[in-house]
Amino acid sequence: MAKDLVEFRNLETHFQTTAGTVKAVDNVSFIIREGETLCVVGESGCGKSVTAMSLMQLIESPPGKIVGGEILFEGEDLLKLSKREMSRIRGNQISMIFQEPMSSLNPVLTIGNQISEPLMLHMLLDRKAAKKRAIELINLVGISRPEKIFDSYPHELSGGMRQRIMIAIALSCDPKLLIADEPTTALDVTIQAQILDLMRDIKQKLNTSILLITHDLGVVAEMADYVVVMYAGKVIEEAPVLELFQDPQHPYTKGLLKAKPIINQKQERLYSIPGQVPNPIDLEDNCHFHDRCEFCMDICKVKQPPFRSHGKDTHKSACWLYEEEREVL
Amino acid sequence: MSADVMPITENKNTKAKAVDTPWKTAMRRFTRNKLAVIGFIMIVFMFILCFIGPLFSPHNLFDYSLKNKNLAPNGTYWLGTDKLGRDILLRMMLAGRISLLVGLVATCITVMIGATLGAVAGFYGKLVDNLIMRVADIFMALPSLPILIILGAVLSDLKVHPSSRIYYLMVIIGVLNWTTLARLVRGQILTLREQEFMQATEALGLKDKRKIFKHLLPNTIPVIIVAATLSVAGAILSESALSFLGIGVVPPTPSWGNMISAANNLIDFRKRPWLWIPPGMCILITSVAINLIGDGLRDALDPKTKK
């Protein structure tokens, strides 16, 4: 098995609001291995992005704060690094692709300028070498006429091209980990497929690990090696991708899979999980999914289920359905 | 799984018609604005008059000849002479050099101080922002003319040589004007720094200095250009006012302001209008022209106006 690259250990990121504390990320642990694509799935507001932001330490503080846990990157705890050490890792060893390609590029600087920037900063290239490398990168992400694109401004490119440029910028310093925060959400379907192809291709070529955040299970099926399902700030299930699709354990995961349209199957209405994500302020110490769960039991309302494997080692979930303890209560 | 990624092929038709850069669009909008173009022509004319005109003058700045004093406009002296027999036209053109220079240099100083402080205040926020903006408030609360008069008087007291006095004046006018620009830039930066591309620069691990000067300030250039243009006119007017009051540019160095003040007695005012009308017209034309350009630029650089 490949080496561990990043390990989240009991990460807790909280936001202080006037209404109370929001535990956006609550005791989250998982591991990203080298050369592996890990997908984090979940509804809006379940803490996917905050987990990634915590890794990059881009949590706006205040109101946000990482209150506990560790994030080990190659054995080193990122949370203990100074601001300067952290900015040496950002963009260099860990880089990030954002959701909105339209607004993630600075409108007044040329594409070339923006790709060269991290090269000159982290790789200490001079302007000429940076330009050469930037043109290589533009080529790598599959845009023709890289010299021309080098001198264009973001508004002259389409959304798909801009997202490719974002990927080029993210890849500029050969990062070990690429975080993609819903990289295809703002793009139309054909471009989505191209971008995903591109990312998969790059992963193979450069052996980069990818942390892919998405709520699109189609994307997960296509990209992931390993899947982490989050709900209300907690990891509720994690498994290798095939396992998860074949044998989902948590009712929430089952619901997500049911809510996905299937080709060649006529359905009048798509299934949707009833109810909404609970109000994240001051959540009680129970299973946060209990009020939407069709298998809800008494114990679900009062006690949090432990997160562990039931059967296979690699497949873990947090649900009382699979625990013996419920009979005792 | 294909190893090669399908390249994006561009549509030749749409690309053949080159996409306008923001500057081209702004230029087109500006040239369509008649008043702005008139203003631009006027200011170019003033520059040519002041910087090239004197080269063709047969007269000398220090040609005193009392026998030619107070002549009305005629063939030799197109705009007449003053009470020391000096050519008004030549003095007016040379005065223009100084006034325009004061306007430009003072504005450069204003922009440098104002943009930097405004950007720093907006970027860091909190204590830094409070500190800088409260100082700006203090500057704004002080009425500028009395301050300028006091500083002018101090310069006179320090016996600063008339020729170097002009440089002090540029600095003083420039420094006193930074607040408006700082506020405008700060406001812009406050919204810009929340944009996603700034989060992206953070994710790239860029340094603060680079973020401010490379990524944020270029985005505020439209605001800076408009404010700077208008402040050129303001600086010229301040200089003229000070020189008129006798504490700006002092004779024998000519300036539009002190040329008018030379005509500040009733006889000169009523009987010899050639003493004060030409420099007065110059001030008027210059400041109107610059204001027209400023308004034109504001409309041209405003992304919301679709023309």
UniProtKB/TrEMBL annotation, chain A:
SUPFAM superfamilies for the chain: P-loop containing nucleoside triphosphate hydrolases
PROSITE patterns, sorted: ABC_TRANSPORTER_1, ABC_TRANSPORTER_2
Name of the protein in its database record: Dipeptide/oligopeptide/nickel ABC transporter ATP-binding protein
InterPro entries, per database record: AAA+_ATPase, ABC_Ni/Peptide_Import, ABC_transporter-like_ATP-bd, ABC_transporter-like_CS, Oligopep_ABC_C, P-loop_NTPase
Gene3D superfamilies the record matches: P-loop containing nucleotide triphosphate hydrolases (3.40.50.300)
Keywords: ATP-binding, Cell membrane, Membrane, Nucleotide-binding, Transport
Family annotation (Pfam families): ABC_tran (PF00005), oligo_HPY (PF08352)
GO cellular component terms, A-Z: plasma membrane
Single GO MF descriptor: ATP binding
Main location: membrane
Domain ABC transporter: from-to ranges: 6-257
Biological processes, Gene Ontology terms: peptide transport
From TrEMBL, chain B:
PROSITE patterns: ABC_TM1
GO CC terms in record: plasma membrane
Protein topology in the membrane: Multi-pass membrane protein
Secretion signal, residue range per the UniProt entry: none
SUPFAM superfamilies in alphabetical order: MetI-like (SSF161098)
UniProt subcellular location: Cell membrane
GO annotation, biological process: transmembrane transport
Ranges annotated as spanning the membrane: 35-56, 98-124, 131-154, 166-185, 216-237, 274-294
UniProt KW keywords: Cell membrane, Membrane, Transmembrane, Transmembrane helix, Transport
Residue ranges occupied by any ABC transmembrane type-1 domain in the UniProt entry: 96-294
Main location as per UniProt: membrane
Family, as annotated: Belongs to the binding-protein-dependent transport system permease family.
Protein name in UniProt: Peptide ABC transporter permease
